[in-house]
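Box S2. Input/output pair 1.
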Amino acid sequence: MEEEIFNVTIDRPIGSSHPDYPSLVYPVNYGYIEGVIAPDGENQDAYVIGVDTPIDHFTGKRIAIIHRRDDVEDKWVITPENVPYNKQQIEDMVYFQEQYFDSYVEMLDEEMWDAYNCKGEKLGYQIPRSMAKSLSEGVYHIAVMIYVKRADGCILATQRSRNKTNPLKWEVTGGSILAGETPVEGAARELAEETGITKKISELREIYNCYDVKRHCIYYIYLAEVPSDMPIHLQIGETMDYAFLPYDEFRELVCSDRFVASEQGRFIEHEKLMKSVLDTNNI
């Protein structure tokens, strides 16, 4: 399905209240698409997710439709381009309002992953991102993490959007690879999308890989080395802030409750190796 881009006029921005139910406060931007008429005869309503601040207008991609069995009108879900969300994430973000309806989410043009066994061998079929938390035993997908080290030894940490899982937690750059990608190709893409840093796959150094039975995930961990004046361009809807930290400060952040717990666990498990790669004295 081709991407469908729509212009949304926001009449209920983040932090505003429902006109009829003042206690219902909008944690996401909500508005309408002028000229697209819904079954109730009014302009089509839409949730805008992936934008963390109140806005007046937004242009983005329709990724899902929320069908209400007990209402005449569906709601659309609009996001920034190249910002993926799965069904569970959307359900969580619109629950504040959809809890009052018998509704369900239909994903459009959903992101697909290759299925692997624990050895990293392809199983010959693909799985939709929305199935990430319900994979069968022995079925895995691949995720990558990229540690960015400047020439002065400082390590990049980024802060997650408040609309994502683990809101406002800190992490390093990463994500799941897409169907047809190799781990290092996925790492280069994630790095470019989330930070604006472009690297050839030959410039990414694999530090280690491991698999997580509970999360049905195989992790590939990479290092990207950049100049000390490297600019960072955050991806809207993904990250709120970033910081380059000396190794000791970075480690302190990783080991705190401000960091994503699963990533913290992998770092601590491989701490000796990570220190040898990331320590300022190792430049």
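Box S3. Input/output pair 2.
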Amino acid sequence: MVLQAEEGLITTSLPVPVLVATAVPVERDAVARALPATAEEVRLPGASLVRTAAGWDLLAAGVGPALAAATTAGALTAAALAGRPYALVVSAGIGGGFPPGAPVGSLVVADAITVADLGAETADGFLPVTELGFGTVTHRPPESLVRVVSEATGARTGTILTVSTVTGTAARAAALSARHPGALAEGMEGFGVAEAAAAHGVPVLEIRAVSNPVGPRDRAAWRIGDALAALTEGFGKLAPALESWNAHDR
């Protein structure tokens, strides 16, 4: 694929575009800073995306799994109808990290994207929706892709949990860690984005830069600027890694 940008000719070996879905514009803009010059803004029903010169579409999909799923599904449908379906969907943003595995400022790439609170509370504890006999709770990105991205960016690899309510107490953090011992981070959109990608048969990846520890809510300890900088740095290394994966491992 070759696209003309204002700064010159940008080439990429990715045969079709990549959709990056963040929650909010500030996260989208952090990703955009790592990529070639912006080519255009594309309006979608209820949302808009930024199309970069290298064929990456950046979408601020909204906060929470439901809105993220709906907006991502709309973008996937629009792309398919336009004859340029996506090769990959990436859920990206900042989030909480489970200490000590994912300290503030680190980058995490999901080997499992798991919804942590979809199910039922019982007298014996929480039951995920799968144990109730329906649904799914985990999407797994391609192992080869996770490996390539981790090696290229230095990201730690583990489960990223999707929650509808951000963890704000030590008790809830401990409960989540006990149920999901491989969890390194939590966010609010990854599972929703993954559900939309799965419905369209498109591979999915989730990357989070850690802005705060998962646990007691202490806004004074948040390092949002540092996390956004880590997200930009990570995506600066991600593009060539994806080209390598596409060429040799897909």
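Caption for Box S3: Residues 112 and 140 are 5 Å apart (CA to CA). Confidence is low (pLDDT under 50) at residues 1-15.
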